[in-house]
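User: tokens in, sequence out, please.
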């Protein structure tokens, strides 16, 4: 089987969903007969997290991973089938479809070897076109950056993805692009997160960036997510490679919000006979508030359970003060350092970290150009 035939069949995948890129959707209705999607609407994926929905007018037997030629405006485009069946209609509620004359666009055929060859030639032109487009934008002194270029499968149209902090008048730019590249031009603005997803990289967690591996719909991230999770508001640690707040700040936010639903307010100081205590931080999942004395009140940081804090606040609101704020001892089991155990019987990995018990012998540095001492010769020198 040739390489073109392999590409035409798509990457190896199962009927449950494609396994080729980050826009895959698990088709949990793959073994159910197609009943609510009689028009055979199919989800097709393209480059740069772009996907759209098409009507299978010819009744082709399609499966996730198949390369197909679809209707475009103008000409045709090459994409990969990412989802078929009843689940496509559920995806339509989350994503917007592009219509022509009020109807879905059509799937012409499964991509032939000629279509794929022309599509590969278009892909090879993208990088060089992007570099030329950047130089032209710099010559026109436009405050924008061309992030990527995507050619249509028939090489008659190209999408230029650009990044700009403010509105850009690129009417003259489009004229220069059309004269230089001899194709139809479409300008599409993207954000910093989308650009980081296209470039890719490794995050501080040691894994591939989420925006380049699986995130397709970017949700706004605010500093309130860090506050709810008691994370220090350090811009260097909270910002990702896109210089924006990390998307992973939202991953566990709901769990922290649910855990703090019944927590007492943190802006209310605790009043005692010796003085007031102000809130410092919280251990959310253990249910402990940490307080520090204010002013000249003696003492250090005190950890109090949220139930006890709620009772103390009720006492203070009634006009009374507690005698003393006593902390609760939190039993933390000490884990023995078992070290590294290897079934093969190799040495521990921290064997080089152990300090040597004996003293190291001092090595005398060799003295260069030392004159030899004159020997005491018993015999007199011969004259």
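Assistant: Sequence out:
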């Amino acid at each position: 089987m040739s390489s073109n035939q392999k590409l035409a069949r798509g990457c190896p995948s199962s009927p449950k969903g494609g396994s080729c890129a980050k826009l895959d959707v698990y088709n949990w209705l793959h073994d159910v007969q197609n009943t609510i999607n009689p028009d055979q609407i199919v989800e097709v994926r393209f480059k740069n997290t772009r996907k759209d929905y098409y009507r299978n007018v010819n009744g082709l037997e399609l499966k996730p991973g198949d390369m197909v030629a679809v209707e475009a405006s103008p000409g045709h485009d090459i994409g990969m089938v990412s989802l078929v069946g009843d689940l496509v209609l559920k995806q339509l509620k989350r994503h917007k479809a592009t219509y022509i004359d009020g109807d879905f666009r059509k799937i012409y055929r499964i991509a032939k070897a000629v279509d794929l060859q022309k599509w590969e030639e278009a892909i090879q032109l993208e990088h060089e076109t992007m570099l030329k487009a950047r130089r032209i934008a710099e010559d026109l002194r436009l405050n924008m950056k061309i992030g990527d270029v995507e050619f249509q499968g028939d090489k008659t149209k190209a999408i230029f993805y650009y990044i700009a902090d403010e509105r850009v008048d690129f009417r003259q730019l489009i004229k220069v692009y059309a004269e230089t590249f001899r194709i139809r031009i479409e300008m599409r603005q993207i954000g910093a997160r989308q650009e980081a997803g296209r470039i890719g990289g490794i995050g501080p967690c040691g894994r591939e960036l989420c925006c380049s591996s699986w995130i397709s719909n970017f949700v706004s991230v605010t500093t309130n997510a860090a506050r709810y999770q008691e994370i220090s508001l350090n811009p260097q640690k909270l910002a990702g490679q896109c210089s924006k707040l990390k998307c992973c700040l939202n991953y566990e936010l709901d769990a922290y919000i649910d855990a703090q639903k019944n927590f007492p307010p943190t802006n209310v100081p605790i009043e005692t006979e010796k003085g007031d205590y102000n809130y410092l931080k919280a251990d959310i999942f253990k249910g402990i508030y940490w307080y520090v004395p204010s002013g000249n009140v003696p003492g250090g940081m005190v950890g109090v359970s949220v139930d006890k804090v709620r009772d103390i606040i009720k006492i203070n609101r009634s006009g009374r003060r507690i005698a003393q704020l006593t902390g609760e001892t939190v039993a933390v089991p000490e884990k023995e350092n078992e070290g590294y155990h290897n079934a093969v019987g190799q040495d521990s990995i921290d064997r080089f970290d152990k300090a040597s018990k004996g003293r190291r012998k001092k090595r005398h540095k060799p003295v260069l150009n030392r004159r030899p001492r004159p020997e005491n010769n018993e015999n007199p020198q011969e004259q």
